[in-house]
Amino acid sequence: MGLISFLITLICMLLINPLVNPAFGDETYIVQLDGIDAQLLTQSDNHLETWYHSFLPQTLASENEGRYSSRIIHSYRNVFKGFAARLSADEVSSMETKDGFVSARPEKMLSLHTTHSPNFLGLNQNMGFWKDSNYGKGVIIGVLDTGISPEHPSFSDEQMPPPPAKWKGKCEFNHTTCNNKIIGARSLITGENPYDDFGHGTHTASTAAGNFVKGANIFGNANGTAAGIAPLAHLAIYKVCSLSSCSESDVIAGMDAAIEDGVDVLSISLGTFEDNFYQDFKALGAFSAMEKGILVSASAGNIGPSNYSVLNQSPWILTVGASTTDRKIRATALLGNKQQYHGESVHHYKAETVLPLVYAGSLNESDPFAPYCYQDSLNGTDIKGKVVLCEAGGLLATEKGEAVKNSGGVAMILLNSEGYANTIQAQAHVLPATRLSYADGLKVKSYINSTSKPVATILFQGTIIGDDLAPVVAAFSSRGPNSVSPGILKPDILGPGLNILAAWPTSIENRTDTKSTFNILSGTSMSCPHLAGVAALLKSSHPDWSPAAIKSAIMTTADTVNLAHDPILDERFLPADIFSTGAGHVNPSKANDPGLVYDIQPKDYIPYLCGLNYTNRQVGFFVQGRVNCSAVSSIPDSQLNYPSFTLTFTSESTSHTYSRTVTNVGQPISSYRAEIVPPPGVDVRVEPNTLEFSELNQKIQYEVTFRRSDSAKNNTVAQGFLKWTSVEHSVRSPIAVIL
Ligand SMILES: *[C@@H]1O[C@H](CO)[C@@H](O)[C@H](O)[C@H]1NC(C)=O
Ligand SMILES: *[C@@H]1O[C@H](CO)[C@@H](O)[C@H](O)[C@H]1NC(C)=O
Ligand SMILES: *[C@@H]1O[C@H](CO)[C@@H](O)[C@H](O)[C@H]1NC(C)=O
Ligand SMILES: *[C@@H]1O[C@H](CO)[C@@H](O)[C@H](O)[C@H]1NC(C)=O
Ligand SMILES: *[C@@H]1O[C@H](CO)[C@@H](O)[C@H](O)[C@H]1NC(C)=O
Ligand SMILES: *[C@@H]1O[C@H](CO)[C@@H](O)[C@H](O)[C@H]1NC(C)=O
Ligand SMILES: *[C@@H]1O[C@H](CO)[C@@H](O)[C@H](O)[C@H]1NC(C)=O
Ligand SMILES: *[C@@H]1O[C@H](CO)[C@@H](O)[C@H](O)[C@H]1NC(C)=O
Ligand SMILES: *[C@@H]1O[C@H](CO)[C@@H](O)[C@H](O)[C@H]1NC(C)=O
Prior knowledge:
Blueprint: H1 3-9, E1 14-20, E2 27-33, H2 35-40, H3 45-53, H4 58-63, H5 67-71, E3 72-76, E4 82-87, H6 89-95, E5 101-106, E6 108-111, H7 117-120, H8 128-132, E7 140-145, E8 182-187, H9 200-209, E9 213-218, E10 221-226, E11 234-239, E12 241-242, E13 245-247, H10 248-261, E14 265-268, E15 270-271, H11 281-291, E16 295-299, E17 317-323, E18 327-335, E19 340-344, E20 355-359, H12 375-378, E21 387-391, H13 397-406, E22 411-415, E23 433-436, H14 438-450, E24 455-465, E25 493-496, E26 500-503, E27 518-521, H15 524-541, H16 547-556, H17 578-581, H18 588-591, E28 596-597, H19 605-611, H20 616-623, E29 645-648, E30 655-664, E31 670-677, E32 682-687, E33 690-693, E34 699-708, E35 717-725, E36 730-738
């Protein structure tokens, strides 16, 4: 996929940009201190603050009383011990010699990355799992994003109980108060209040836990009752981004506060490339959250379909890719040769007249940008009264529509890039428009070539439900393999992330008669809160499950086939690779009753981290204590008790054996049999191959041996699965092998 489409995919995702602030003297540094030294001090806030202040240069203390407190922007307690402060490079170097100093680096700047999806996920009002889990009642979902628009009807507290007693959060709106839906709202951005001026945070929060709103639609499309996945869960809002910018120090402060306040689930639709986990403060924050029993759902990233593009790769995070739902908002291009090509657009225009059709790329052959319909390229061309065919990429699709309209064009057909293939975003254009797949785009172009007077029109057909190819992996959804820990399969799971209708602070139709305003967005930013909602439902029906048990339940019960019962496809409509689907597509009702879970306790990650060859000190960053890797038995990452298997054969290794431990959460007396579909070229043996349980919560360990066979094709990826089946349950673990 070209750079241009890559940039477009960033729009809906908060992505840490590796560039740092240009340094005009002081800049914001994140200073990490030694957690063990901190333990020697008392745990009270005051003592920690005093200790943090002692790292700031002494000269300033005497010169300018009180300046300390204004220079510390955030004090961290939970994610790690340390703080964010405005410092000069000289001040940082004088700090480095002090006892307890670990590291200081300039913060990274971050830039910007339903009515139907509950039903698509099998959640129906007044029945089944939604009812059984009480719609997530009593569970608190923390959302780190751009804030929230609290007046939106999705955040009404009708039917909502008061916050649980453990809740310690704050409400910092300056124009309104919290209610039993939004029980906490803070801005970690200095000088701002938690109101959402952008919309992204309102959208993601309502996707996770929006209350029921009847008659939600956009331009009349996708009309229905909007609801989040856990419609009766509480929301705790942490504003860490405003408009297109988020700073790392604020994101960590949001995680730190959410852990302190007592959320149960965290939804984090932002990410960054990681070289390792110990220098990634967000991974450290997620670890601290997991230790407190908080499940962290994070977006996989919008950098697909390239390999190795997945973000949030640590095993204690639930990493969510994006897929389609079975709803289309159809706008069909009808050509002069009577051929029809189905695309999508959220508008509904009535005038459907046949008009001359022109390919923007042919308007000025010497302008390489002409096909993309930039305003500069369209200036001076004659597109008056025409339907203009534009290539996607570069600008936002809606900006292309504006450029076409400004230059006199009356309609637009937008063509997907080759990389985007069949992933079609439904967008709100300022003129009649539709967006077509790459393959259909080629056919429209060849029609134009075939005739001297090409003509076209667009037929708006509204909302159509029942695409049985769904779910299809979205082109932008980031892919594995895992670059930091190759033995852990990422992404973990797929959830709805294309053309998601959810709450929006303002009416994009400019309506003033209603607060019930919605917008359609696409991205892994949208799939992440779906899984946060599912986790909240599971937490509500199984309050004793650990984050790892919830993850396992979601992963081992995921669907691997689409509505037509064929294997899930990717954006090219080819069978999707395991590194795009992970365990498959979330099936909430099945996740509620998984039979067996692969549990992991916080301490089990220590041998895993040592096995990544991190130093004692680096492993100590996670647990905020002393670790001696020589004294714990390190394990290779593939040996972690994860609900999937990922292994690499090298020239030295022709066989790998791993053990796993399953915990019985199904029927007390039950018997499971192993069913194996080995990856081609790999022989898989399980020992024992039946598991007999006699009580609940009983644990049984088994071993799997993977052997490379002579038929194995070198340098390929092979996939298969291991499934434990009983009369009632099926517990499936995908197997990914790099040969
Ligand atoms: C609320 O805070 C914002 C700054 O985030 C400020 O612009 C606004 O005037 C404040 N409103 C009130 C009512 O104080
Ligand atoms: C949405 O559906 C409701 C209930 O079926 C109906 O009353 C309402 O008119 C519909 N709204 C639009 C804009 O189609
Ligand atoms: C990703 O890797 C797979 C398997 O190695 C390969 O077939 C595919 O072409 C790669 N995709 C991209 C986009 O590089
Ligand atoms: C065509 O594009 C070239 C390169 O951008 C530009 O210099 C030229 O002025 C354009 N021609 C017209 C007729 O607009
Ligand atoms: C249409 O014609 C142009 C110019 O002759 C050519 O470059 C292009 O490849 C053709 N496109 C198709 C889809 O046939
Ligand atoms: C809403 O108003 C803005 C600003 O006046 C305008 O640019 C936009 O086209 C309007 N949108 C609709 C859907 O009418
Ligand atoms: C850690 O070091 C061991 C021994 O040198 C090596 O076999 C292993 O591959 C390394 N692991 C990682 C994840 O780099
Ligand atoms: C770490 O453990 C090893 C093996 O038990 C021991 O020999 C060594 O002294 C320990 N190192 C520290 C710093 O405690
Ligand atoms: C595959 O790699 C293994 C180990 O490096 C080697 O022994 C074998 O000959 C290779 N097979 C082929 C078909 O190249």
